Amino acid sequence: MLKKTLTLAVAATTLTIAAPALAQDSGATIGFIGGLTGPIESLAPPILAGAQLAVNQVNEQGGILGGELTMISADSACDATGGATAADKIINTDNAVAVVGGLCTGETIGAFNGSGLSGNVVFVSPASSAPALTTLEDNDLVYRTTPSDALQGVKMAELLLAKGVNDIAITYVNNDYGKGFADALSAAYTAGGGTVAANIAHEEGKADYRAELGNLVASQNLVILAYANASGNTVLRQAVESGNFTTYVGGDGMVGDDLLTGIDPAAVEGLIATRAGAPTGEAVDIYNAFTGEGFTANATYAPQAYDAAFLLALAIEKNGSASREGLSAALRDVASAPGEKILPGEWAKAKELIAAGTDIDYEGAGGALDFDEAGDVDGIIVELAVEGGSFVEKGVIQ
């Protein structure tokens, strides 16, 4: 697939351009870039904990390249400019060999375009789901362990139509994530026979979305594609106050208990949501039994973050040094068949096989991770619902 260049404006800040990292005598350093503050701040800590658990397991089972695996985190506030600033530190000051992140698609693109491309740094995002990442000009350096919203939009459309929801109004946060998701949902929903009565962007950070909601009343079924800690909560709260809607729907960015802050849970009982899920099987069962500080196995994007960190560790060990050169090829090798299966937590086994020159194939907490030419993976999307004031997973959307 020939990828097109995606232009992104970042802050007018001069960033230091680093040469590819030199190999360390032992051990390796990776970075974590994500919105620890801002619109997904309630979602980010469990994602970070998922990645940290993988790092801890590597060190508990003998370490990497004869030393320890270190992960340094940087907050990018779910923002492109924040992503560029975080990447400058992680890549050019901390000399990370690779990056888990970003989380929001805009911060991933900002971080990669800011320092990642020039530094020859592999990024594996556990949560950047916008279709825009597929077409990013990245020299085969940007990957993700979560499926694209091109899939989530289709699955949400199929779910709503199967439930007899035949018309919807959509409001989406005006960024790569929101627009990409809304476009995918609208196309699939219309193709399936549904009516999109309104499809309107909204800007992040406003205190009042009543004007936007007034333009969405052509349907009583409101789809909000935004973030739980930010406009998602405000739009949902003011929609409930308006009394104009009877059914509420949200995407993965809305799946967090903070979404219901200031809202009577009874008013949104049955709210429908979607997010990336995991298939059944031994790999998922093993992962779900893990425990760790701040770790919640089924938190949104925690499995995908665990996979991203574990995969990068495997790729670094396979590459044989803490150099950035050759890491992308090594990542593809350890993530794909052929090879002996490696399941979550099987670091010591993987090290022995790599040392013996045996091919390995990691099967992750989020499922198989066979990257396509664009660095994307297949996946499954699950349905959730608000029941008694909390999100409850209902199952895979077939």
TrEMBL record:
Query: Boundaries of each Leucine-binding protein domain copy?
Result: 29-335
Q: Which Pfam families match?
A: Peripla_BP_6 (PF13458)
One GO term under biological process is: amino acid transport
Q: What are the entry keywords?
A: Amino-acid transport, Signal, Transport
Span of the secretion signal? Answer: 1-23
- Give the family per the record: Belongs to the leucine-binding protein family.
The protein depicted here goes by the name: Amino acid/amide ABC transporter substrate-binding protein, HAAT family
